[in-house]
Write a structure and sequence with these properties.
Structural class: mainly beta
Length: 204
């Protein structure tokens, strides 16, 4: 069965550090920042805040992967926790607290991400890639980001390194070509790591 085109952003699946829910750190989001969804990569701005990742941004600005937020809701009049930042509902004198899995200056973590209509090939393992942010869901709070295969290169400034293909060689808890995203070709799932060794390292 062909893979389904249903991007979900970057989903943590493990790594060399502590379990992901113990790795969360807090970062501030400006009250008027654009919407950010769970699974979105986020970047560090020169204002001290974080914001949704923008393609072609230098890898040194990759702060981590967004996992939710907390803020004083103007409409509800109380502090709420949400799995996405809607981009409004906070007074101009308030700050949104974002929770992220750190990518820079942190132990390497691995993430699952859907690819685009081209799909990642086995020969792409070791290359660096950027992401297309897609459209997040205000119903589920999930990201719509996916791996942009056209950006694949050895370029050190690209934010993510392709580590493996989901289901390749029976790794990562799935047998070859079994289950969603494991079939070769369009919209297959890739396993990536943040390319944040120093200012980013050259791919293979």
């Amino acid at each position: 069965m062909a893979n389904t085109n249903a991007p979900f952003g970057l989903r943590p699946i493990g790594g060399m550090g502590a379990p992901p829910n113990f790795q969360l750190i807090t970062c501030d989001i400006a009250y008027n920042a654009s919407a950010i969804f769970t699974g979105d990569p986020v970047m560090r701005l020169n204002t001290g805040y974080i914001a949704k990742w923008s393609a072609t941004t230098a890898v040194s600005q990759l702060a981590g992967i967004f996992m939710g937020c907390q803020y004083l809701s103007s409409s509800l009049g109380r502090i709420i926790r949400n799995n996405y930042w809607p981009g409004s509902d906070v007074a101009s004198n308030q700050v949104v607290t974002g929770f992220i899995l750190p990518a820079n200056l942190a132990a390497p973590s691995y993430y699952l991400i859907q690819t685009d209509a081209t799909g990642a090939a086995f020969a792409d393992i070791g290359l660096n890639f950027d992401v297309n942010m897609g459209t997040g869901s205000t119903v589920t709070g999930r990201s719509g980001a996916y791996l942009d295969i056209s950006t694949g290169a050895a370029t050190a400034t690209l934010p993510f390194r392709l580590v493996n293909l989901y289901g390749a060689g029976g790794t990562w808890g799935v047998q070859d070509n079994v289950g969603p995203g494991s079939e070769a070709g369009a919209y297959n799932w890739a396993i990536v790591a943040a390319n944040t060794s120093g200012a980013g390292s050259t791919g293979i």
